[in-house]
Structures are given as C-alpha cells and as structure tokens.
Design brief:
Layout: E1 9-12, H1 14-18, H2 27-37, E2 44-50, H3 62-67, E3 77-82, H4 85-92, E4 97-105, H5 108-115, H6 119-135, E5 139-145, H7 159-169, E6 175-180, H8 187-200, E7 205-210, H9 214-225, E8 231-234, H10 255-264, H11 273-289
Helix pairs in contact: 2-11, 4-6, 8-9
C-alpha cells in the first residue's frame, strides 16, 4: 500500500472557533482577524457559514465579512459551511468562496440537531448541493460528522463509513473530511479507519477534522498522517467545537500541535511564522474578550 506524497493541506478553521462563542464578535474584528490569517499561508480558511442566524447568530455576518476581505494577494482558498440548499446557493454565488462544506452525520440524532433533517432527508440535499457547486465552479467538501462515534448511545459501526463514502463518491464528491465531533476517537481507531478508507477509495481526498483534548492531539495527528491522511482541519490554540454536539465543547486540534508535528517529522509547510504569530496575538485578544 502506498500513501500520498509528503505534502500537507492545512485548513485553518476560525469559523469553528468562533461559532460557539456566546458574545457577538464585532464584524470589523472578524474581518481584521481573517485578513491576517490570509497572510499566514494556510491552504484553506474555513471563514464562515451561510446558515440560519437564529441557529448560529455568530455567523450572521458571514456575507459582509467575506465581501470586505482582500484575497488578491493570498493563495489561501476560502471555505464556507452550509446546512441546506439555500445556504449552498448563497455560498456558491459568492465569488470569494472556493469550497462549500456540508455536515452529513452518521448519527441520526446529530443530523437532526445540526440540520433539522434526518439522514435520509439530508442525502438528497447533498446531491443537490453537489449540482449547485458544480454549476458555480466551486468544490464541495462533505464532513462526515460523528465519524468516530457519538455521545447519544446510538449504535455505531465503523463499516458504515464505507457505505457513506460509497454513496458520496458515486455522487461525484471527491473531498470527504472525517469529523471526530466530540473527541471519541482513539489512535488505533483513527489509523484503522483512514487506512481502510484510503485503500478502498483511492480517488477520494480524505481529511481529518478532530476535536480533542490537548494531551491527545499530537498522537491523533500521527495516527492519521501515518495512515495516509494529508488534509487537516485545525484552529489556533485549539479553540472551538460544535455547539450542537453536547453541552461541553471539545476543542479542535490546535494549529500549533500540527505545526510541531510537521517540524518533528520533516514535513514541509508554507506557513509564514511571523504572520502566524501576529494572527495568534489577535486570536488571543478575541477569545480572552468574548466568551
């Protein structure tokens, strides 16, 4: 078995960091923060979401934020999350959006919490969103939420992931990120799942969207990387988590942990360290002020 070349795609996710913050972060501050992140050298910036403002008030200004970003001198691509067809149409019509992301859960309970639909109702939406993105020359990323288990005592079987990926790949979807939404995954499980799926679906680009406590982040990165994953979602200082998963948010893998792993394993990255330090300073100011 062979894995992809020693190239990594780092997806910085300020949207994930901000969406669960109760205090509304002013639009001007979001713009300043995202603009600085565009200077760092990330492959992609998960910059916002086109979802109901009642469901996620923090993201109600995504359109305004994106319109004020200057992307002309940055190679970083913009990703926006959607939860339905209407959101996909809004995101796909936005010239600065390159990727449209949609959360499809392997947990029935979480799918209802996250998109107010059953899995059976969500699958036709996924197909429709794929068509919308293709028509608008965007790329579609499907996040398989609760891919490593759920907190609801629902039955979970790793084999079901293959069935989901099969359905998605036959819709023409080629980027699928496996989300450990509440930090359930152990390293053996991570390695096994990535190894098996990458072997079975070599044409699909698989990503890792891990929520984790800081003490296990490095090992989870290693389990995914050493079994073929080359696409990683992270946030500065590991801030964030899904507000619809459970009451206590489990943070994301930190950008710093991933970059340390890259340094330790001689994995080249395009990251500008000085720009990263500046962005991290803004991040610390935001998340110490707004809660």
């Amino acid at each position: 078995m062979s894995f992809p070349a020693n190239e990594i795609k780092i997806i910085e996710c300020p949207r994930d960091a901000m969406q669960g913050i109760r205090d509304f972060i002013p639009t001007t501050i979001k713009i300043k923060y995202l603009q600085r992140l565009l200077e760092v050298g990330f492959h992609t910036l998960d910059a916002g979401s086109f979802v109901s403002p009642k469901a996620v008030p923090q993201m109600s200004d995504t359109d305004v934020v994106l319109r004020h970003l200057d992307v002309s001198s940055s190679a970083t691509k913009i990703l926006a999350i959607v939860a339905n067809i209407r959101g996909a149409e809004q995101a796909s019509a936005h010239e600065k959006v390159h990727y449209v992301g949609y959360p499809l859960s392997v947990s029935e309970i979480f799918q209802k919490k996250n998109t107010n639909k059953t899995i059976a109702e969500a699958l036709p939406d996924v197909s429709a969103i794929q068509d919308i993105t293709l028509r608008n020359d965007k790329e579609f990323v499907v996040y398989l939420s609760m891919a490593f288990g759920n907190p609801y005592q629902e039955p979970y079987h790793e084999e079901a992931l293959s069935e989901y990926v099969y359905k998605l790949s036959h819709m023409g979807i080629s980027i699928i990120s496996l989300a450990d939404t509440v930090g359930k995954a152990c390293t053996d499980m991570i390695g096994r799942i990535f190894r098996n799926l990458i072997t079975e679906f070599p044409a699909v680009e698989f990503g890792a969207h891990f929520h984790s406590t800081p003490d296990t982040a490095y090992q989870k990165i290693h389990a995914a990387w050493s079994n073929g994953c080359r696409r990683f979602d992270v946030t500065l200082s590991g801030i964030g988590g899904c507000p619809f998963a459970e009451d206590k948010l489990t943070g994301n893998i930190s950008t710093q942990a991933l970059l340390q792993y890259c340094t330790d394993h001689n994995i080249p990255t395009p990251i500008n360290i000085e720009a990263l330090k500046s962005a991290n300073q803004i991040s610390e100011e935001i998340f110490s002020t707004y809660h």
